Amino acid sequence: MKMDFFRKKTVADFKETSENSGLKKNLRAFDLALLGIGSVVGTGVFVATGQGAMMAGPAVIISFIIAAVTSALCALTYAELSTMFPVSGSTYSYSYVAFGEIVAWIIGWNLMLTYLVSGAAVASGWSGTLVGMLNAYGIVLPEALTKSILAGGFIDLPAVLITCFITWLLYVGVSESAKVNNIIVGIKVFVILLFIFLGLTHIKPQNYIPFSPYGMGGIMSATAVIFFAYIGFDAVSTAAEETKNPKRDVPIGLLICLITVVILYIGVALALTGMIPFKSINVMNAIPDALSQIGINWGSTLVATGAVIGMISTLLVTLYGQVRIFMAMSRDGLLPKAFASINKKHGTPATCTLITGIVTCIIAGFFPLTVIIDLCNIGTLFAFIAVSAGIIVLRKTMPNVERKFRCPWVPIIPLFAIGFCLYITLSIPLVTWIRFVVWILVGVTVYFLYGAKHSRLNKNNAHVEE
């Protein structure tokens, strides 16, 4: 039998998968919007803003605008594809129908890296914020238990513990997780708005001079650092299969999320760099420490508490997305079938959830935040490129498939999205590219040794030939 590595899924395949998944369909547009906000507004605001400001100075505001424009273009393409194929798997699933199996596998393998390291980055950022808050109260935890080996400690224990808690929450059920997320997002948005208000009322214009001390190179380097936060848009689309009316709710949820995120991110960057000189920013505890530096200690305490609570929702949504990617690939036979088993009591993919939690604990506990974020950024950008290219291909190959939402100005918008993403990748360090290429090569090897033979489509084609 000749094996076709570019075999594609059909609309009928997606419909059958969705109807027989066993997953509970409890989510609405508001839940999806808050899932996205919970994911995107997290470590990117509380930690990566400070890192970006150190690279670009006050011009980190422009970095956020570039990232926001790129994400807005990509969100439009996600909205169309999620109404065409309302199933778990997001970019992986869309690539399966647009480009074929081997491309889908590479995208899915890439998404595994993206979500796992993104979850670890959030856990690590949460740990740094927690340690900073405890230090303000005179509680100093030993470095051996709060830093990874490569950062001079032994294990980042707070990051491991919060990951274990979120893993348990996802194991219990997505509806319960969404309720917790909605509460946390409300707290998080409140403290961010409070910070923006306090910051804008204490701006010193001289802090914006020089506005761009490191030029366009610094702006783009900062953009590459903060971009990992925008994986939340992909996470929203992974929830399509557990949504009551995905063809309506997913596009609405994505657009609400996008508008909210752009306002909050630019507001925080404007306030942070205007309050204090950018060189005075404490990278691991940027927002609370900035308030402390201008003497608003009560605000610093409140925002730090909100940040510690708020980043929990970011971790929750990130791990949720990874679990659904694992499950989708397993159902297609590209990973062991046990990964897709659904817990009858809770209606959740139990095995996938536990594996995701364990791997994230290892990465968060033993690798420093800077290494984690660089790996995540490149994965997010390539996921966005795949979705944007998929829109162009599917408009040609599947023109008659129902689209409840249509991305405007195709192919112009998808091509702009691809161009922006490729431009941002130019600012990613060479060592990160090397790690990424090695990861892809390992993935291709795994596909040919296991996935290609066990693929559900391969087995179906074999039956047809017989």
Strand and helix map with partners:
Layout: H1 11-19, H2 29-40, H3 43-56, H4 60-84, H5 90-98, H6 101-136, H7 157-172, H8 174-200, H9 215-226, H10 232-238, H11 246-275, H12 286-293, H13 297-331, H14 350-366, H15 369-397, H16 412-425, H17 430-454, H18 456-465
Question: How would you describe this protein?
Answer:
With 466 residues, the chain is mostly helical. The protein contains 18 helices and no strands. It has helices at residues 11-19, 29-40, 43-56, 60-84, 90-98, 101-136, 157-172, 174-200, 215-226, 232-238, 246-275, 286-293, 297-331, 350-366, 369-397, 412-425, 430-454, 456-465. Helix 10 crosses helix 13 (297-331) and helix 13 (297-331) crosses helix 14 (350-366). The longest helix is centred in the first third of the chain and has 36 residues, at 101-136. It starts with 10 loop residues before the first helix and ends with a helix. The relative contact order is 0.21. The mean pLDDT is 85.
Keyword list:
466 residues, mainly alpha, 18 helices, 72% helix
Short description:
The chain has 466 residues and is mostly helical. It contains 18 helices and no strands. Helices cover 72% and strands 0% of the residues.
The secondary-structure element order is: HHHHHHHHHHHHHHHHHH
Could you tell me how far the N terminus lies from the C terminus, measured between alpha carbons in angstroms? 10 Å
Supply Rg: 21 Å
- Going by helix content, strand content and strand pairing, the class is mainly alpha
What's the mean pLDDT score? 85
Shape field: globular
Largest sheet report: none
